[in-house]
Each structure stands twice: as structure tokens, then as C-alpha cells.
Amino acid sequence: MVDFNDLELDVAQVRRHFPILDREVHGKPLVYLDNAATSQTPESVIQSIADYYRRYNANIHRGLHTLADEATAAYEGTREKVRAFINAHEHREIIFTRGTTEAINLVANSWGRANLKAGDEILISRLEHHSNIVPWQLLARELELRIKVIPVDERGVLDMHAYRDLFTERTRLVAVNHISNAFGTVNPVAEMADIAHRQGALILVDGAQAAPHERVDVQALDADFYAFSAHKVYGPTGVGMLYGKATLLEAMPPWQGGGEMIKTVSFEAPTTFADIPHRFEAGTPAIGEVVGFGAALDWVGEFDLRLIKSWEQRLLAHATQELSRIDGLRILGTAPHKAAVISFIVEGAHSQDIGLLIDQLGVAIRTGHHCAQPLLTEFGVDATCRASFAAYNTPEEIDIFVEALKRVIGMVR
Ligand SMILES: *Cc1c(COP(=O)(O)O)cnc(C)c1O
């Protein structure tokens, strides 16, 4: 049995911060196990966004009035919180985006177009989310780049020997996730960065699943680019960030034009661009959401990611133990280092049916390809069920989920 008693994380207290956890679904208490798709939002984050709209809603940077100053201070304040959260060297290395997806598209379109040419090679892992595949495929088609795939073994662990062997003198970039959203595999990104750098390539790390579960230190990882979304770290949707080393960002051209990103605009002389980070933040950003992003990082800081991680690891161990006892259930992704994500299939039962029926019992899990079709194809399936955990989940919820799953399997088989 997994012991939950010696931990400092007071889960009852954590749960009180999340109003949505009190709701019912189909007359049953909500058991929310879809955290890898989006996490729930604590009251302090909801309040911070409401407070922005109630008290200091104004456009940022250009205003010379009190509300604009306050909004700018809050917006830039989040930039500093993000910097501290990932231990970046400088706050100008943090660019606000709509999320991980937009951050990766920014690198592909700005850095990629400026630095890549026909025949250059990009290494992408088999574990990637579509948002770290498709932007590179679009670019590759246009610039005639070559994409090479880092393979995984039967546990869903990257093959590091194959990784080393994929490098050639044309390899320019490695694009890899820190933690797989489909299988939960934690990748050795510091080691991968070291290998990439020795080969003269850069590394972009998709940290969408790492930010909620691990202490991220971009300097220790030596990542050249790092991306994550606020909505998977207890923050609002529609906002996220790209970290880039200052020397790289400074040399990169803008990718979207508009207000906020220029120094001077002229028809007679060349338009000049703002310094980083503003060069990459064209137009009015999601100011209220950025404020909420900051509040979410404050919330995580209050509870300490190390405690949250060790709580989630016990939830993972407990769920793995219980699910393994179910006849005909197979867990996909059995890496020794995993985050709190379990993908599974059940013999004789469609994942879609399981997802729909278990929702009737109040349990929210995700079914489908999890935006990782190349990975599922490799394992010979087109869909799995996925349960993923957050700081507010409890062992009792996992027991409810497992009992519900057994009932559902009995119904569909
Ligand atoms: C969710 C996720 C993304 C995409 O994040 P968005 O917020 O949808 O942009 C990318 N990569 C991984 C690993 C994810 O889990």
C-alpha cells in the first residue's frame, strides 16, 4: 500500500482553494482526472482576474494614466514571477504567448526562418505533442528541411543511443518535450541538451507538462528555448510563455507585426523594432490572463512544487497498483521516471465508450489520441484512456475512479 500519511501537503486545505471541486456531474461529486489537458483554477487566480477588470482594466505600456500604470506593473510583474519560476537569468528572456503552441510557432517562424535552409535537420522525439511536430513540418515543407524522429522503446522511454546516432553536421535543432502528455515519461532533457550543444545544435524544450509537476530550472537544463502554458499550472487559458536565451532572442526577427513591438514606424525609412521581449509581443496581449498567470505561480509557490510532486507521485503509484489489478487492462507508458499521468487501454472495450460512461459516474478522464498520434501509432492503438493527477486529487478519488472503471468495463464487455 502507498502511504499518504507522512506528507506535509494538506490536501483538504488545497481542495478548499478550488470552488469547482464542489460541483456535481450527473448527480455525482466531480472526480476531475483530466489535469494533463487543463488544471482547475484556485479562487486566488479567479479573484486576481476579476480584480483586474473591476479596478485597473487598461491597455498597457503606452498609457500615461494611473490605470495604465497599474495594469503595466501587474503585467510586467508576472514576467518577473515567470522568470523566477523557471530560474531564467533575466526577465527580458520571457515572452508572453497564447500558450505552448504559439511559443513553438514563434520559434519555428522567427528563429527557424532566419537560421535554417534546405537540407538542414531537426530532431523530434516520437513522444511529442502535435504542437511540437506540426510547426516544424510546416516549416520543413517550405524550406525543404529534414525531420528525423528520436525513437522510443516499449516502455515509452527515448532511445538515447539512437538519439546520439541521429546527429549529423546538418543537425540544427532538437525539439523535445520535458514530460510526455500521453505517457508521462520524464525525458533526460539536461543530458539531451548537453549532447545537442556538443553537436552544435540548439534545443527547444516543450515544458507544458513539466511546469505543473517539476521544479524547472532553464539554466541548469541549459535549454535554449523552453515553453509552457498557464492553464496546466492552475492558471487561466489563453496565455503561456516562451523562454529564450537573451543572445538568441536578440538576434531573432519579429514574426508578427503590429502595435507594441516597434520603435518607429515610417513609410520613408525602414521601420525599427522594439527590444526583446516586446519585439515578440505584437498587439494588445491577454492582460487579465497574464495577471491570473502571475497569481497561479504565486499559488504554486505557496504550496511548494516539491511537496506537490511527491503527493502526485504517490497518487500515481496508488493508481498504477489499483489499475494493474484489473483484468485485461494494459498501461501504456511504463517509464521508470514518470509524471502523474496514466494511459491505458482495456481489452474488449473502446476507450471512447469508457470515457463517456465513466463521465456518467462523475469521473472526468480523457480519451483519444491526446494530440500524440505518432506515439500511439507506434504502440498500435489509435486511442487510450488517460487519467492525470494534480495537487488537489486524493487517494479516495482514485478509488472512486477505479470502482467506476470496473463497473463501466462490466457494462461494455
Ligand atoms: C498541452 C500541451 C501542449 C499544448 O499546449 P497549449 O496550451 O494547447 O498550447 C503542448 N505540449 C504538451 C506536452 C502539452 O501537454
Automatic annotation (TrEMBL):
Stored SUPFAM superfamilies: PLP-dependent transferases
Domain of life where this protein originates: Bacteria
Aminotransferase class V domain span: 31-401
GO biological process: cysteine metabolic process
Xref: Pfam families: Aminotran_5 (PF00266)
Cofactor (UniProt): pyridoxal 5'-phosphate
Catalytic activity as recorded in UniProt: (sulfur carrier)-H + L-cysteine = (sulfur carrier)-SH + L-alanine
Entries under Gene3D superfamilies matching the protein: Aspartate Aminotransferase, domain 1, Type I PLP-dependent aspartate aminotransferase-like (Major domain)
Family classification: Belongs to the class-V pyridoxal-phosphate-dependent aminotransferase family. Csd subfamily.
Protein purpose: Catalyzes the removal of elemental sulfur and selenium atoms from L-cysteine, L-cystine, L-selenocysteine, and L-selenocystine to produce L-alanine.
PANTHER family in UniProt: CYSTEINE DESULFURASE, CYSTEINE DESULFURASE 1, CHLOROPLASTIC
Protein name: Probable cysteine desulfurase
Source organism (scientific name): Pistricoccus aurantiacus
Upper classification of the organism: Bacteria, Pseudomonadati, Pseudomonadota, Gammaproteobacteria, Oceanospirillales
